[in-house]
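Recall the central idea of this unit: under ordinary conditions, the amino acid sequence of a chain determines the structure it adopts. In this exercise we apply that idea directly, starting from the sequence alone.
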Amino acid sequence: MPRLACALVAVALLIGCEEGPPPELGDEVATLRQIMEDDPAEASIEEAERVATERPVHAAALLEETAIPAARRQAARAREAEVASAEGRAYGRRLAEAYAKRVRGLEQWQGYLEDAATDDDALLASITTLREASVELVELDRDMDSVAPLTRRP
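Accordingly, the structure predicted from this sequence is:
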């Protein structure tokens, strides 16, 4: 076989062997991102943050009645996301774990507020847990962006 033909065959084999993300992964990432965008807990968490300093009992009630149940629903949506590829399931698992961690952080924060907002260790624990959940969500979004870039609007 001439050298050029051998080289072309080798290149064709290399191209054919190149593995990339499965085609359905882009759709799965879009599904997971939609879950992140449609977060029912965000508004009630923001409201609790807004009133927590001046009205901690009210903030605790907001967390108990609205934010925590919405955050639990969000964690369930992430767990139940329909993804088939191994990569999609891994992303979905990470998303569900981050949202479950956020629920734990909100529950810790609610406990702190109900206990007269005086236990600095409890406050630190809740802030740490909520921050870790937020970091995990940002890292997940970054990792998904490397596979299926999100078109950002200005």
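Residues 4-18 have pLDDT under 50 and may be disordered.
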